[in-house]
Recover the amino acids of this structure.
């Protein structure tokens, strides 16, 4: 069984350890960790660094490899039909498709208040994340998860599905899968500035999720005092709101910074001051922003 692998080096390495070394590996990012090690551990493999799959010469090269199976794990661009037509193609997506189709399901699942997510092995189609679902594994979202920890939590089960796909295909399983219900689909685009601008008219519990969803990067931002800051550590607080305080206004009490929200109170413990070279501030330095 000859495999064409597209994605991060870790996926190719995990496949190798499981006995399914790829014959052709296309690494999507030139600076990806583990790329140099792949050259040492897969000396017989054709290794391409960030190739353009749209390039006719690359397409011809991939076709000449006569691979039986295409596997993708975090390939950063759309895979053209000319490549998908070379062999049965499968990818693993870090959500329970059709929920959160797109490049950043971590941010949107946390911000939406989902308590569960997972990973999906699916057939690759010309449109992102729309192929037939072959298998899924579910993972809980903990109350303290942020975008980074959730991404790391999903790596292991997604790699397990990748290996399982190679194993099943080698055993003769066609893995036809089940059609996705488009009516249940939600989008998970890379969050832009508007999606990262906190709105204190929202309930405090929603803003707390918003901050975690964007942490550590790119971060959710708003003005605190006269400074533009990225909020890093916040929590919902039950402190009484001083009389006359408007939504979005902050106050200091007992050495703690709090903000009145549309519903409830948000406690602020750590921020990154974007007006001061991105320096993180907490404690007295944080309070000084409101003086």
């Amino acid at each position: 069984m000859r495999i064409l692998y597209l994605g991060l080096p870790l996926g190719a390495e995990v496949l190798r350890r499981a006995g399914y070394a790829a014959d052709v590996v296309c690494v999507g990012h030139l600076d990806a960790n583990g790329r140099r090690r792949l050259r040492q551990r897969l000396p017989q493999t054709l290794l391409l660094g960030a190739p353009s799959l749209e390039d006719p010469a690359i397409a011809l090269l991939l076709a000449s490899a006569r691979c039986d199976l295409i596997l993708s794990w975090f390939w950063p661009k759309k895979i053209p039909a000319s490549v998908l037509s070379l062999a049965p193609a499968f990818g693993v997506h870090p959500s329970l498709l059709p929920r959160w189709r797109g490049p950043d399901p971590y941010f949107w699942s946390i911000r939406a208040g989902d308590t569960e997510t997972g990973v999906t092995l699916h057939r690759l189609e010309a449109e992102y994340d729309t192929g037939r679902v072959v298998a899924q594994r579910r993972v809980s979202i903990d109350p303290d998860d942020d975008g980074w920890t959730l991404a790391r939590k999903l790596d292991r089960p997604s790699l397990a599905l990748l290996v399982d796909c190679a194993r099943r295909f080698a055993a003769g399983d066609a893995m036809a899968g089940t059609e996705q219900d488009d009516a249940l689909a939600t989008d998970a685009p890379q969050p832009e500035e508007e999606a990262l601008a906190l709105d204190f008219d929202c309930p405090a519990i929603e803003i707390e999720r918003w901050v975690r969803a964007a942490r550590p990067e790119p971060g959710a931002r708003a003005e605190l005092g006269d400074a533009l800051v990225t909020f890093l550590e916040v929590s919902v607080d039950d402190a009484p709101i001083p009389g006359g305080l408007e939504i979005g206004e902050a106050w200091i009490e007992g050495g703690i910074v709090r903000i009145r929200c549309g519903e409830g109170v948000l406690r602020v413990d750590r921020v990154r001051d974007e007006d001061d070279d991105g320096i993180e501030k907490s404690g007295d330095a944080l309070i000084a922003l409101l003086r």
